[in-house]
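Sample entry (172 residues):
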Amino acid sequence: MPRESDPRTIRDALDAATDAFNEEGFGVPTREPAIDPEADWKTQLTKACRLLAAVDRLDGHDYFTATIELCFGATERSVEAFALAEGGDELGDSRDHTTCYDRASALGLLSPETTIRLRQLYDTNRTDSYYGGRRPTERQATAMRTLSGAVHGFVTDQLREGGVCLCYADTQ
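Predicted structure, serialized as tokens:
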């Protein structure tokens, strides 16, 4: 099938998205102001803060799939922030969605039992809720919000350099 047979709206939108990610044209890009670019760990931690803030905005609107996705992302970004800040990791060391759980255990952030359970939760339920035929529930979304918030708060408390987390600032 030739490219020209694809809908023009898709081709144009794809071109625009590719340009946006390549930062081609349109002058200076507008970046998300709350994401701290000073250091990789700060970037990951503030991304987690923003994911949790987005979850809070979705609360009460029945976006359970989105909530679960964002919560898994917030958990990953939080643990990655710790691995970058305290473990000497490089940003490229996080090769997939589950590396952070292994690092949490290896760095002594969480016990091996807890990290195994977190990884199993991801492997079994994230994949099923997102790619599988299951329909996520409100209870699952609420539990994931509580879990990701607990992990994020704990990680933030374990970082030697404080004052980076935006969660408290977002509620003001």
